[in-house]
Amino acid sequence: MSNKRAKIRAEIRNTRKNLSNNQQIIAAQSLKMNFIQHLKSEKTTNSKHIAIYLSNDGELDTSLLIKELWSLNHTVYLPIIHPFNGANLLFQRYEKNSPMRANRYGILEPKLNCSQICPLPVLDYLLMPLVAFDKQGNRLGMGGGFYDRTLARLHEQNWQKPQLIGLAHECQKVEALPIESWDVPLKTIITPDKTYCW
After folding, report:
1. Non-local CB neighbours of 66 within 8 Å, separated by 6+ positions
2. Which parts form a coiled-coil structure per UniProt (predicted)?
């Protein structure tokens, strides 16, 4: 199964990287509109705690959405690799002037400030990157397992918050993914073209 997952991961990453700059710009604009529409559909008017990520490796560009969330007075958080347990993520507040550093994968994250860390159950939304997704809401990540390990305890407790939302290009959708026991399925995935709910 791991070979099949690796093959899908390589194929979709390659497809995603081949999107043109113009396609990425249009996708980022559509993502912004689709997620804001999703918030409105849930009658969300007050300020929310929303974790998101900075795009990497051809992922759907989140920069326009982050700016829009700031303008609407939502509080934005980014994942940082746990400084003591390097297999899990913490979510730290992200503002325009937040000091940043590159993590071991070369991805920018806020410099650790324990007073700015948000506990998972306080987050209203957790917007997650993914490499591929299928028609059942299963998610295939980059293979590091960071999100699955971070969410494992919540997954066992039938939690209400945060709402997990995957972000992806439409070209990342596949018919069916080979699933492992630790995979955390998603109830919502937003692409530039559509919002999928299960």
Report:
1. 52, 76, 94
2. none
The model's pTM is: 0.93
Q: How many structural domains does the chain have?
A: 1
Give the tens place of pLDDT for each residue, 123-146: 999 999 999 999 999 999 888 889
Query: Does the annotation flag 144 for ligand binding?
Result: yes
19 falls in which pLDDT band (50, 70, 90)?
very high
**Domain of 81?**
2-197
User: At residue 31, does pLDDT exceed 80?
Assistant: yes
**Residue 30 maps to which CATH number?**
3.40.50.10420
Q: Is there a binding annotation on residue 108?
A: no
Region of residue 154 (phi > 0: left; psi between -120 and 50: alpha; otherwise: beta):
alpha
54 annotated as a binding-site residue: yes
Q: Is 59 known as a binding-site position? A: yes
